[in-house]
What we know:
Layout: E1 2-7, H1 15-26, E2 30-35, H2 41-48, E3 52-56, H3 62-76, E4 82-86, H4 88-92, E5 104-106, H5 111-122, E6 133-136, E7 141-143, H6 161-165, H7 169-173, E8 176-179, E9 182-183, H8 194-200, E10 208-209, H9 212-225, E11 230-233, H10 242-255, E12 260-264, H11 266-271, H12 274-282, E13 284-292, H13 296-302, H14 309-321, E14 325-332, H15 339-351, E15 356-361, H16 369-376, H17 402-420, H18 425-431, H19 438-460, H20 467-479
Parallel strand pairs: 1-2, 1-3, 3-4, 4-5, 8-11, 11-12, 12-13, 13-14, 14-15
Antiparallel strand pairs: 5-6, 6-7, 9-10
Amino acid sequence: MRVLFVEKQIDYEPQGIMQLSSVLKQAGHQVGLAIAAQEDPVQVALEFEPDILGFSVMTGSHQYYYELNRRIREALNGKGVFSIFGGPHPTFFPEMIEEPGVDAICVGEGEGAIVDLANSLEEGRVRPDIPNLWIKLEDEIVKNPVRPLIHDLGSLPHPDRHLIYEKHEYSRDAPVKHFMGSRGCPYQCTYCFNHAYYQIYKKEKRGNQRPVDTIIDEVNWVRSLWPLEQVVFIDDLFIIFDDWLEEFAEKWPQQVGLPFFCNVRADLLVRWPHKVDLLAKAGAGTVSMGIEAANDRIRRDVLKRHMSREDIVLAGRMLRDAGIHVTSTNILGLPSGRLEDDLDTMRLNAEARISYAHAFLFQPYPGTELGKYAQDNNFMVGTFDDISSIAWDRSIIVFEDEKEKRQIEHLQRWFAIGVEYPWLEPVIRQLIKLPHNKVVDTVYWWIHKLFKGWMISRRVHPTKFSVRNLWNAAMHFFRMDA
């Protein structure tokens, strides 16, 4: 079978698509890729002649992919192409199977499902009983249960980086590349998909690590073929299991020796400070931790992040004292929150000595507890279809005061600058009072982009300087919707 994955744009290596491609190729199928931001995906489809169209979809991008799927199917003009949608949106909103042109959706992990689908189509029919798939047949929609999670992640082939790097020059040549060391997270944060994910996968272990040796083998393989100066692990939480982290800290410096980035959690570091020592021993250059909100009520009751303000400050300072830079994630415009709460979050980041603070406007994603809370309590304007594919333009949350909402939206652009230069808070308070218009929004966008780009390139993911790499990174950064 010929499988064509279609992506709107590539920010960094899409781990899911690369893994699906590797298992498809292992099973003897052919895989192609179209990137709409740099080529006409309809023309690519006409040339590739796919049997299967695959889309990985987040809430906010789903309408774009519906339309793109329709255009490609029309252009193929009668060729019996099969369209399957996977990723977060169909996993938590499987009713999208009812959309025209959607033949199947994948709920949860897709490796086994996509291979089973390709094999069945190769035999000349769509098998209706493929686990993880909801399939649209002529007169019914078959809703299959999920199969068990893949526990032995080392059994999977390395993600198919050739698929991406042959098409996407920036990812191929970038000295910073992205990897995954685990899947899953045991925590119950209400804004995150993980708690909803394990409602689908009941009684499953919440977190599976790839073997350390498998990760090292993949990284060294990538380094042998493409530029690589720094590794970014995009796992939800990198530091859960002590025995794994101890093995990693022992082997990584000896067999790889590259600086790396990973996600941590403040209360775990405060409770078990040796994890900081292990990260430093392994060679972590930068880590990221979720702060999200300074207000104790919002953080504990609304977000269900059961850690104290003191934990956040202490964890940040412990990491900085160990020579590790710290980035943070923060959510502005939360239900029941106010502007002063978000400004307090900005101050908390500064107190924790955060190296760069990412700030996002809250988006009530379907399937999450907080998304349901926002919808049930009339905090949302419109429906889930109104959610932006990027969480830093506008909020769809209802505020008592529209002026306050506008100020919070503007604060997102100034948040990281306020963390880096706390003395600017009085100035920022005045700047966020300006109205939304083309001039203000454009100027604030540029200020935010330039500051973020500079801080990431110099502090978060520092690499050897070259004019070519700097130019490529800048062009890539400014082309991205995000």
